Amino acid sequence: MNTSFVLLACYQKALVPLETVGVDFLGLGKREVNEQAARNKLPFPAIRLRDSPQAPRFVKIEDLANWIDLQAAAAKQSWQQSQI
Fold it and tell me: One Pfam family name from the record (predicted)?
């Protein structure tokens, strides 16, 4: 199953608000996730559609899906190594 398609079906848009991603996937509140985005500390890029510090940040579905897939692959590899 393609992670991008599942996320697109869930959120029904190509860009997801950063605050939504922070809550749903990172366990971070609005302030924390925006601070991390400002310092480029998130595991994926956050974008603004306007050149303004007040403009909301978004995450592309493809970037979020790639990160989820990488996390899943790392977890699977770790799990497989622990199996005898």
Answer: PyocinActivator
Give a three-class secondary structure readout of the chain: CCHHHHHHHHHCCCEEEHHHHHHHHHCCCHHHHHHHHHCCCCCCCCEECCCCCCCCEEEEHHHHHHHHHHHHHHHHHHHHHHCC
Q: What is the pLDDT of residue 81?
A: 92
- Domain range list for the chain: 3-82
Residues 6 or more apart whose CB falls under 8 angstroms from that of 18 comprise 33, 34, 37, 46, 56, 57, 58, 59
Query: Dihedrals φ, ψ of 56, to 5°?
Result: -70, 155
Q: What is the pTM of this model?
A: 0.91
Q: Would you state the pLDDT for residue 50? A: 96
What is the rounded CA–CA span in Å between residue 70 and residue 64?
10
